[in-house]
Amino acid sequence: MKLMRLLGLPWMALSQRWRMGIGVCFALLFVGATTVGVIRLHDTNGVLRTVHAVAGADCLFWAGALSQSLLLAREAHRLRLPALDREVTASLTLYALLTIALPALLLAWMGGNVAVTLTEIGMGAGLGMAYATLPPYLGIIVCFTPMLSDHAGPWLPMPSASPDRFLAWAVPCVALLWLLVGGFWRNAVRRDSGLSGARRPIMLNLRTLAWYGRNRSNYLEVQQIRRRWQWAQPVADLRHCGPDRPMYSLRIAMGGWSMPQTSTSRWRQLGILLASMLLPIFVMAVASHGDDVLRSIFDNANVLVFALCIVGAVLALAQVQTLQRRWSRHNAELPLLALLPGLGDTVRIKRELLLANLLPTLGVQALLILAMLGLAASLHLDAGSDIMLLLGQLTGMGMLTTLALVTLGGVHVRDGWLMVLCTCGYLLVNISVVLALPMVDNQPFIHQPAVAWAAAIAWAGLFVPLLRLGVLGWHGLRNRPHPFLPVA
Amino acid sequence: MNAILKETASTIAPLTARGLTHCYEGSNVLRGVDLALEPGSVLGLIGRNGAGKSTLIRTMLGLLEPLSGEARVFGEPALKLSDDAKARLAYVPQQPEALAWLTAQQMLDYVGRFYPRWDADFAHRTLERWKLQPNKLLAKLSPGERQRVDLIRALASQPELLVLDEPAAALDPVARRELLREVALRAGESGTTVLFSTHIVSDLERVASEIAFLHEGRLILRCGVDDTKERYARLWLPAAKSAAAPTQALSRRRHEDGSLSLVVERDAQDHWPEAASLPGARIDALGLEDLFVEIAE
To answer: In A, which residues are within 8 Å of B63 by CB distance?
Structure first.
């Protein structure tokens, strides 16, 4: 009975639906890993591959399921329940025996090196736990660890190459990793209320987001502003706002990337954006092919076309998200703007509001179209491919216009449907580039009639609901007494 | 002609609601509310959490479309206010969160450009007096500080009608006193009409000239603050006399021993209900807080 309670303890912090979901995922993972292990056991590296698979599965299991015990430990500490605190420790120890020690012994019995097996599986579980319980900036590093075995071979010997040399660096690292996890665990349990978002474990931050439900987008925006350094904050340019320039003023009230900023602030934001893009490119360059990555990105027009298309779609979705944030809160911008004098009559306000939300993004998307067509010309693409690329950008523009009208017009659409629509639109933007560019034998896929027909049907399937929603939104906006009424 | 116009403008009720109904997800929040504010009055809207106070205020200001009924601000339909009406009105929502990406000073500068009677000097002085950092981003202010910035925003526009939704909810006692003093000053000196919602009864007693009690979406009581003690009382009837209880009562509670407690009101001739004169019956005067609790329970 006690054993069952200890086994069930980490699951108590999860809802029934999550328990079911995680249970099914891990059952499938376990069956898959076992099958692969049994099939490949006769290979020379069969046991080692199984150890990799078990370490990977343990990483996910500890990150997704067992890390939830932190919530219980925290509550036990807050409610002064030392017995529950001890049970959480005992439960994790039991799971460590079952998911680390037991598989290691089994694999050692099948012919593996017991120390190597134990270390690698312990490392997998530790990395999973580190992702969930360390502060985000440390936890994210865990995501890059799979690259170790591919790219760090010359510096860090892997078990397949030299088990002894692997143990020489891995054992201290694993010990340090678990010590770090223990330290941050203790800190999170005892000082959670005093920890800022940047220092709180990812798992606790995700929990907070889940608690905010549909308002998480607003919560994230405020958190982002709070955490940003003062020098990195965008500074609004208020010089030209006022009743004479309603569109300009409304853009300030909407916030987001399209808010009018001082030129210093605009250049600073651009610098921050470029710097943040350089970091991943640098990591990729160092980790994989040296400077080939940079060359492959900037010498390859295909990649640039792809990037331009994606940027257009992402900008549209970002603008729509900003709009949805503003129209979901009844104690923020809506009452302020609804009662702000000087914006003019209702018809004028609706027109200026629509333009304030559409024009900046549509303008950037138009520039992206020009850049894309220029690149297409340099690639000597034919009219069919050009049309596909145009369709990709127009999809982003259409989604922006439609979803803006839906929000401003107060049309109630279920979140699930919007999610499906946005996902389909985003996928079609991606597909449009793939079909337009000469990927195989210097021939774009769109030249094949079957592909062209399938693409036409897919686009019709997206544009028909977009058009219908757009018309509904337009009528909704026209019929509203004023546009600053929250979405029902 | 001008004199007639001026008189008409000053006698128009700044805020009226007639038969307002509204519902959220199938449950009725407002059930046919009628309310009118006299010019220069300070009306405290009181009710329990979820009674519909914020919904009523938002509907009266045209920030929410009612299912039925009509709201008017300075005689204009609340949902289609002119710039002139908007310039005479200021509203502070509960827990204001607008324009989090601007600093307090930027927000006041931004809003101030739209109000013809904006008192920039007042805004500047009050920021200093209330010890608010003008260059701090609104997102980084505490809820209480943010509420105070929004109060400054509302007061600096020199409104004729000031509507505050739970203005003291996030304020410390000192800030609350300062706010109430400011509201009383505006009402007394400038004749500003004030509507504010609260469930802090002592705030009502300090500044309100009238109270309106909203309970389960219905306005069940409205009178002058000073009149409540005279006009309403608790009538206790022993079990044997409970059958004679008046049918009209604001609340009715039966005790375990069969006796009955009712909140009753004097009639037009200033008399308590007849049952109050029955042998064994008792009339207890009620303070504002007791009255609130008796009705809300």
So the answer is: 330, 334-335, 338-339, 484-485
Name the pLDDT band for B138 (thresholds 50, 70, 90).
Answer: very high
Residue with tokens 């303070």: B287
Domain of residue A200 covers 2-213
Runs of H (alpha helix) within A255-382: 263-284, 292-298, 301-326, 333-338, 346-378
In A, which residues are within 8 Å of B140 by CB distance? 225-226
Does a structural domain hold residue A110?
Answer: yes
ipTM: 0.88
Instruction: Report the candidate in B161, B183, B3 with the shortest Cα–Cα distance to residue B72.
Output: B161
**Distance of alpha carbon A327 from alpha carbon A339, whole angstroms:** 15
Taking phi first (over 0 means left), then psi (-120 to 50 degrees means alpha), and beta for anything else, what does residue B231 get?
Answer: alpha
Both A321 and A434 in one domain: the answer is: yes
Inter-chain CB proximity B98 and A332 less than 8 Å: yes
Q: Tens digits of per-residue pLDDT, A188-214?
A: 888 755 555 566 777 777 676 665 555
Number of domains observed in the structure of chain A: 2
8 Å CB contact of A485 and B63: yes
Q: Which of A253, A338, A486 sits opposite B99 (nearest CB)?
A: A253
The residue out of A191, A213, A235 marking a domain boundary is A213
- List chain A residues with CB under 8 Å of B77: 481
Mean pLDDT score, A332-352: 92
Phi, psi of B94 (to 5 degrees): -70, 135
Residue A134 in any domain: the answer is yes
Q: Would the CA dihedral through B75, B81, B84, B86 be positive or negative?
A: positive
B25 — contact with chain A (CB < 8 Å)? no
* Co-location of A309 and A167 in the same domain: no
For chains A and B, count residue pairs whose Cβ atoms are closer than 8 Å: 111
Q: Which of A189, A213, A237 is the last residue of a domain?
A: A213
CB A126 within 8 A of CB A174: yes
Pair (A336, A469) in one structural domain: yes
What digits encode the pLDDT tens for the residues A50-85?
888 888 888 888 988 888 888 888 888 888 888 888
What global pTM score does this model have?
Answer: 0.75
The whole-number pLDDT of residue B8 equals 46
Rounded-to-integer distance, Cα B92 and Cα B163, Å: 6
